[in-house]
Amino acid sequence: MWYPTKVTTAATTEPVTAEEAKRRLHITFDDDDADIDLMIKSARDHAEKYSNVRFASQTVEMKCDGFCDFVRLPEAPMSSVTSIAYIDTTGAPQTLPDTVYELRNDGFEVSIVTTYGQQWPAIQSGSRITVIAVVGYADAPPAVKQAILLFLGDAYENRENAELDDWTAFDALLCNFRRGA
């Protein structure tokens, strides 16, 4: 069983730049830059929660009960595994050498498997395995960028709270990126 993921290093870039947003919004002045930056971060956050996919590269900490959980990781896409830590049967903290495992990315399905001839170590009963990994897109797909720009256009035009329709272009663009929890 996987426990809620914790972001340890937040995204340093966004899928859409302030310049792209301002061009889409037809803004030629700098007065609203702080609002636009906030809207971009909010739009990415909303898109990530809607899709259960990270659209900007960031480092996360994931915890699970056993190596059997590695058959399907809770985050995608994943570019690298930084470390895998566990408590051995004597109660000592251990870090798994990266020669024991490999990362497999198959679209939205991400897993960690043992390399040929290796096996998972025994862990202390009731302890957690901690995986630190870099997840998210280095460059978000065009449909995701378009969805974020649509979200920004609506957020900039309608700065007050408004009721949303059931299905929007935002939903249509992101529905193919949705990943089950």
Structural description of this entry:
The model has no long low-confidence stretch (mean pLDDT 90). The protein is elongated. With 181 residues, the chain is an alpha+beta fold. The protein has helices at 18-25, 33-51, 142-157, 169-174; strands at residues 6-9, 58-64, 78-87, 93-95, 101-106, 109-114, 129-135. The longest helix is centred in the N-terminal third of the chain and has 19 residues, at 33-51. The protein is built from 4 helices and 7 strands, in the order E-H-H-E-E-E-E-E-E-H-H.
Tally the helices: what do you get?
4
**Weakly predicted, low-confidence segments:** none
Write out the strand line-up for the largest beta sheet, numbering strands in chain order.
Answer: 1-2-7-3-4
Give the quaternary arrangement of the chains.
single chain
Indicate the percent of residues in helices: 25-40%
Shape label: elongated
Tell me the span between the first and last alpha carbons: 11 Å
Strand content: 15-25%
Task: From the structure above, extract its key features.
single chain, 181 residues, alpha+beta, 5-stranded antiparallel β-sheet, 7 strands, elongated
Summarize this entry quickly.
The chain is of the alpha+beta class and 181 residues long. Helix content is 27%, strand content 24%.
Secondary structure topology:
Layout: E1 6-9, H1 18-25, H2 33-51, E2 58-64, E3 78-87, E4 93-95, E5 101-106, E6 109-114, E7 129-135, H3 142-157, H4 169-174
Antiparallel strand pairs: 1-2, 2-7, 3-4, 3-7, 5-6
